[in-house]
Structures are given as structure tokens and as C-alpha cells.
Amino acid sequence: MGIAGQRPWSPDLSPRATRCARLPTTQHVRVSFAPAKTTRPGKIVMKKTDTIYLVSNGDFRDSACETCWPMQDDTLKQVRKAFKKLGYKTETVTKYDAKRKHGFVTKQCEGAEIFSKIDPKAPVVIVLSCWAYAHHVCGPLQAHEGPKLLLGNFDGTWPGLVALLNHAGTLERLHVKHSRLWTDSFLKDDYFMEKLGDWCAKGDIKHSTKHLTDAEKAKISPAATKFGKELAEDIKTNRRIMGQLDPGCMGMLNAVMDPAHLGKIGMPIEYLNQSDLMAEMELVSDEEAQKHLNWLVKKGTWFDWGTDQYTDLVHGQVLEQMKIYSAACRLVERFGLCAIGIPYQLGLVRCTAATDLVEGMLNNIDRPAVKDPTTKQVVKKGKAIPHFNEGDMGSGVPQLLMHDIYERKGMPTETTLHDVRWGREWEDKYVWVFLISGGAPPAHYGGWKNTNVYRQPAMYFPKGGGTCSGVSKPGVITWARCYEQFGELGMDVGTGEVLDLPEAEVQDRLDRTTPVWPIANVHIPGYDRNEMMATHMSNHITMGYGDILEELIATCRHLGIKTRVAGDAGKALKK
Q1: Is 277 helix (H, G, I), strand (E, B) or coil?
Q2: Fewer CB near the last or first residue (10 Å), C or N of the chain?
Q3: Contact 566, 527 (CB under 8 A)
């Protein structure tokens, strides 16, 4: 994911640029920290004379970092003021670099160098105000002993909150204890200041988890229990092979799962390669690609055509996307996949058009037919092919489970993941903005006639390609997220409602985030801002239409996945 920007990314491929150059020594100084006094195991007391070190983690791409630096600089100032009010000193160890025009960490080797110059027992804060690659700092943090705080702003345009959730899920995946905190107003936010004070005093923050219900304590109907048992047995017997291309995209290590865990529940991984997708694209004719595009046009899909390939959506970009679509379908057939995840960045971003329109097509039942060149049979005829955006296996698992449940119940099977991008109150309800660059199926908007295809923002997508955009229709949804937490497979689930908001409200939400991406305005009773930010295990959330919560819980139980039910839905099942 990312925010919209103006300047296209042009990678520097010189030998100098492809190595991780040592950072200027002026950016980092050897810092020291008096060892924390321990009053009892697990409790750390920071002294007012100690220094708290601030680290700015960012994107891999300098163009994105340059665009985001003014907001990060302002965020750092707000963070310093907050600590100062509490009586603590801070030091920003990632300095502004005039040549790069920003002060972000952009590679893991830079993060490693930074932490090599910080006392391993020092308290550190990862300050987040934009999309950032978690592995830049989460890898080095594995060996850091001091208190660790992820601190993100809560803003749609500058989505530090999305990066925070990514970093938190990644650190849990890596078995690293940490704290998380978020705010949209810093000193004016009483909850933020109270929790920040707790971290300074104890080296840890405890958020309420009363909104979570252990699924083992949930009362499930006998019919749902029987359903879940039968589906789980079928999955374990017949297997559901998950195709994942080049996992680890964009530093989302929470998207990478232990194949031992997935194989045990009957969902083994087929590791695939982006280069194989490119090779398969070469075998797709221009004629076949054009037929797919013609199909979309006849269905009423609207394309925002232009003439300048560097800023506009042009015909050649979409033809490339249609070839990706055929190639992906062929890979599904060749390897017998039940779901597939294509992480567009970083490799494919330099090679071909964006995959986002393709992902929406795959996730949709109503889509162009693709024949396997060997068997001459249509691949998954009349069915959606679950595609997990950005190769995120934490979404792929619930998408596949939900797809199978919907299919067995005779319900529409389309699913997608979204970024937990932002949210605010609307008519006494907290309404989340779920937004993603790709993956959302047109069925969620009411069909292809309600689908718009815009060029992806040039800052992140130099080779262009179209989105698969629309406003998700009102209705009840089931949502989920699979994750690994300290070596254990887990699943968070719940129900919610996509609301039909006034056009002006929808447009304002789009304008505050990324207007060319698909949006779902979702209310999850009992899972508002502080609840989700405190415990959600990823920057992503998976959703599908219709209430299948009990069947999903029952299936997870019989597969051996530890499950939590979030919000009022969990409380209702305890009655």
C-alpha cells in the first residue's frame, strides 16, 4: 500500500546504489544509557536523566520518503514535545540527509547500523507517519534488549497507523516484545499521554483486551459445529494448496507464515517466483489480452484513459495487466492451487504494470474465461480464484476458508483484503476506512458497471497499470485475520457492516486517503479505534459479504487454530 504522490519513482541501478552504502557518520553518534533499574522481573524504570532514542523508519523508495518527510518532521516535533512534557529527554538518531532530502531509514542494513550505535539496553521509539517497511528496523530490534515502542500518527493521508500495525504484526511474528501507541492530536490526546507516561515509567504499555472473546468460550450452534468439522476434515484430507510468489514483500513479515503450521492444517504452501509469472506472460498473445479487455468494456467497466504513459492510464499498460491475469490463471491450473498471492512490489514494479486490476478480476466470480494451453479447459470456470494481495498469507488463509464456507452455503464467494487505513465517527458510529490498492472484487461494488479503473499513482507505480476501484455496497460482512504470534498460529474474526454513507462523506474519506483505490466504509460494533489499534495483528483485514461467523469459528476450532472473536459479536456468542 502507500499514499498518493506526484513524483514518479526512478530507481538508481548503479553499482554504488545497489550496495548498502555506509551511512554518514554525522548521522549517528555513539549513545549511552544507564542500565535500567529492575524493581521486579518484567518492570523497567526509566530515569528522567536517561535519553529516549527516536528512529524514523520509512519506505524503500527515496521519492516516497522525500514526499513524506515534512509530515515526519512535524510528527517528530510533536513526539519530542510529548516526552518533554512528561519530563524525559529524547534524541533523534536518524537525521535529515540533504542529498536524499529526508531522514528515513530505507534499508535493513541502515537500520542495523543505527542500532549498532545505540546501547542495547536503551529505550527506543520507532516513529511512524507514513508507510514503512517493517524489516528495516524489526530485524535489528530482535537483538535489542531495551524497551521498544511503536508510535504512529492516526491520519488517513499520512498513514503511520498502517505502518504501526504492520510493524506490530511483524514483531509478534519475530517473537519480539514491544508496545504500541497511536494518536491524532498528541498533547491534546489524554489517552495517548497517559499511555506514553506508562511506557516511560514501566517500559511497557497495557491496553484493554475486553473487546476480545476466546472462541473456545463462544457458544456455537450444533449445525455450525457439524459444518466446521466436515469442512476441516475435507481440508485436511484433500489439502488446499496456497500459491505464494516471493513472500516478504514490502517488509510485511507478518504476511510470511511458517509452512509447518500451514501444512499441519491442510493448507501447504507452493512457493512460486515472480520471474515465472513474467515468463508465462510472454506466452500470452496480444489477441488474448485484448479479448479480456474487450470483455471488461462490454461489462460496463469505466477506464480513465489518457495519453501520457508516465502519468496516465494507457492501452499498453492494461494489455500487460490482461497478460498477467492469464498467466496467473495458468499458474493456478499448473500447480493445482486453491488460492494465489502476487506481491507486486518490489520486483514486479520494475518489470511490468501493476497487478491490482488483475487481483480484482481473480477474486470475482464474473470474470473473463482463461483456457489452460495444455488441457484446453477453462480454469476454475464460474468460480472466483481467491487472491491475497501483496502475497499476504495472513489474508490468504481466511480468504480460502471463507470462500469454501460461502461456496458450501450457496452464498457469493468473493473475498478481499483491505488496509486498515483510517477511521472516524459518523452519526454516533465509528466507521473505518478499509482501502487497498488492489484485490477488491467488482462484486463488492455491485458489479463491473460500478467499477472504475484509474492509473496507479506514479510515485509508487512508475510503469502504471489500472486499479480495480469502487465503493463497497452496504451489507453485513464477516471479517478475519490470520497471524503468527510468538510461534503460534492464530485467527481474529468478527462481523460488521458496510455502511451506505452520503456521497460527500465518501468523497471526503477518499480525498483524505487515496482516491483512486477501492473503499469499504465499515462499522464493527465494539471494535473501534482504540480496540483495533491495540490488538489487531496486521495492517490488513479480510472481508466477505454475509454472516458466516459461527461456521468460520467452528472450522478454525477443528483445524486447531487458536481464535479470538472481536467486538460485540464475541460478547453475543458468550450469552
Answers
A1: helix
A2: C
A3: yes
In contact, 199 and 151? CB cutoff 8 Å: no
Residues 6+ apart with CB under 8 A from 119: 31, 32, 33, 146
Distances (CA, A) of 162 to 148, 176, 188, 337, 370: 18, 19, 22, 30, 35
Give me the domain span that covers residue 79.
15-202
Placement of cell 481474529 in the chain: 492
Say how far apart CA 471 and CA 502 lie, in whole Å: 12
Residue 236 shares a structural domain with residue 127 = no
Please indicate, yes or no, if residue 477 is contained in any of the structural domains.
yes
pLDDT class of 30 with cuts at 50, 70, 90: very low
| 190-202 and 62-86 helices, crossing angle to 10° | 80
* Of 74, 115, 70, 80, the residue nearest 94 (C-alpha): 115
C-alpha cell read off for 311: 502519468
Coil, strand or helix: which one is 564? strand
Query: Across the chain, how many H-helices and E-strands are there?
Result: 17, 20
Statement to judge: residues 197 and 279 lie in one domain: no
Q: Has residue 7 been placed in a domain?
A: no
Tell me the CA end-to-end span of the chain in Å, nearest whole number. Answer: 39
Count of residues in the chain: 575
| pLDDT of 11 higher than 60 | no
Residues in Cβ contact with 275 at an 8 Å cutoff, skipping those fewer than 6 apart:
none
